[in-house]
Write a structure and sequence with these properties.
The protein is elongated. Helices cover 46% and strands 26% of the residues. The chain has a four-stranded antiparallel β-sheet with strand order 6-7-5-8, with helices on one face. A two-stranded parallel sheet has the order 1-2. It is built from seven helices and eight strands, in the order H-E-H-E-H-E-E-H-E-H-E-E-H-E-H. The chain has 185 residues and is an alpha+beta fold.
Length: 185
């Protein structure tokens, strides 16, 4: 109803603030279809705010990620996903990631970046299919137990975490160091 009411005056620009929050998957898909039709058939420019980045990926021609009240990055969904790295190798280990493992993986040819969180590694690379066996062999050589290894292309969630996540991690570390009176380096 809200969407229909917003269209009564035939606007050139429509602002939608999280239009699918709380909807079941079937209703969400219907809203997706309607938003697409409004944009395509009626030529209405739509500004959509959402916390569901798969929604932005499916609906938006351009995406902007806001961090701390400022536009941190913008582009087409494809541009933003490719900026993260073409492929991601996600490795879930049997124990927490050591700095030796991260350093060893960073040294491999074609590795763009390695992110480690608890017992999970994310290896960014331009060609994951070519690198996945090398990563698996290196982990085996290091004697690291692997529970799961997955190859996938980046999502807008990955972009969001890259743009905002490292700052959050630094803030958490700084806060923890402040509580304990310093670092353990």
């Amino acid at each position: 109803m809200d969407l229909a009411a917003a269209l009564i005056h035939q606007p050139e620009i429509l602002f939608l603030d999280e239009p699918t929050t709380g909807l079941d998957p079937i209703s969400r898909n219907r809203i997706f279809e309607e938003i697409g039709k409004i944009n395509t058939d009626l030529g209405v420019t739509i500004f959509l705010t959402t916390q569901y980045l798969e929604e932005a990926d499916a609906l938006a021609h351009r995406v902007g990620i806001i961090d701390r009240g400022r536009l941190a990055v913008q582009g087409t969904p494809e541009e933003l996903k490719h900026s993260r790295g073409s492929d991601l190798i996600i490795v879930k280990l049997e124990s927490d990631v050591s700095s030796e493992v991260v350093t060893s993986l960073e040294a491999l040819a074609s590795v763009d970046a390695v992110d480690a969180h608890d017992s999970e590694l994310t290896v960014s690379t331009g060609n994951g299919a070519a690198l996945v066996s090398t990563v698996a062999l290196k982990l085996n050589e290091l004697g690291v137990g692997v529970r799961e290894l997955t190859l996938r292309t980046p999502t807008l969630d990955d972009v969001f975490l890259q743009v905002t996540g490292s700052r959050l991690q630094r803030e958490e570390t700084a806060q923890l160091e402040g509580e304990t009176g310093g670092s353990n380096d």
